[in-house]
Fold:
Amino acid sequence: MESVVRTVPDFAEAEALVRKGIDSSRIVVLNGDDENAAVEHARAGIEQKRGPLRLRPYSCGKRCLIVMPTYNELDNLEVIVRDILAYLDTDVLVVDDGSPDGTGDLADRMAAENERIRVIHREGKQGLGTAYLAGFDYAAKHGYERVFEMDADFSHPPWDLPRLAAASLDADLVIGSRYVRGGSTIGWTFKRNMLSRGGNLYSRIVLGSRIRDLTAGFRCFAVDKLQQLDLSEIGASGFAFQIEMAYRMQRKGFRVVEVPIHFTDREVGVSKMHGGIAKEALFLVPKLRFRVPKG
Ligand SMILES: Nc1nc2c(ncn2[C@@H]2O[C@H](COP(=O)(O)OP(=O)(O)OP(=O)(O)O)[C@@H](O)[C@H]2O)c(=O)[nH]1
Ligand SMILES: [Mg+2]
Structure:
C-alpha cells in the first residue's frame, strides 16, 4: 500500500495541500508533535487502513460532541467510534432508532465501558433530521461548544475530523464538502452522482446560496450559533434537513466554510436512500426561500 506521507506543521498548511489535490489521508499534521514519531504512527495507521493515525487525538480547545445517528450499523459502529476517538478529543452521542440488528444494544455496551460514549434510544425509525435535532439539543443542554454530524458508515473519513474542528475555530458552520476544489465522491453510481449534484445545483440556484455542498452530512456547528436558530420550525428529515440547516445558518449571517473531503460510498451495511428523500427536498427548497427570514 502507498504510504508516502506529507508532513505539515498546522491545519492551515494541510488545507492548502488538500486544495491542491493531495489526499488528506496522506497528510500528517504535526500541531506540535515530534515529526519522526508522528510519521511512523501515521504510516502504521495507513497500513491498517485506518488513515494517518495521530499520536494523540487532536484537541481544538472546545468541548466537542459528535452526533452519530444509527439505523442497522452493527458492523460499523464499534470501528467508527474507535477511530473517531483516536483522531479527535471529543465525546460521541449515538442516536439509535431501535435498530432491528441490535446496534442500540451494542451502543449501550460501548457506553458502559467508555464515558466518552453516550446513547439516545428512540422508538422506531424516525429519520435523520430529528435524530440530529435530538443531538443538538443534548449538546446545548450539556455545555458542548462544537457539535458534529457524521454518518456511521465510513463515508465521512474520521481523519478529517481534526480538520473540521480546526476550521470551526474560525467559522460557525464547517461543511465537509464534496463539491469544492480538492473534494470528491468515490464509488457512487452515475445516477447517485447526478442526484446529488443536481440536488445541490437546484438548491443553490433556488436559494441563491454560494455553498457548494448543501446536502453534505459531515459538519461541525458552533453550538452558541445553533442555539440562535429556531430549530422548532424544522420539519425536514433527509437531505432537505441538511439544506435547511445550512441555509438557516447562512441567512442568519453566520460564517459558513467548506473544507474539501473525499466521500466514500458505504462498503458495509444497507443504504436507506430512497426517492422520497429527493422529493422532500424538491418541494421544500422553494418554500425555504420565502419562509426563512434574513438575520
Ligand atoms: N437514528 C437514525 N439514523 C438513521 C436513520 N436513517 C439513516 N440513519 C443513519 O444515518 C447515517 C446516514 O444514513 P445512510 O444510510 O448512510 O444514508 P446515505 O449516506 O444517504 O446512503 P448510503 O450511504 O448510500 O447508504 C447512517 O449512520 C445511518 O445509520 C434514521 O431514520 N434514524
Ligand atoms: Mg451513507
Observations:
- The mean pLDDT is 94.
- The chain is about 40% helix and 15% strand.
- The first strand starts at residue 6 and ends at 8.
- The CA atoms of residues 238 and 274 lie 10 Å apart.
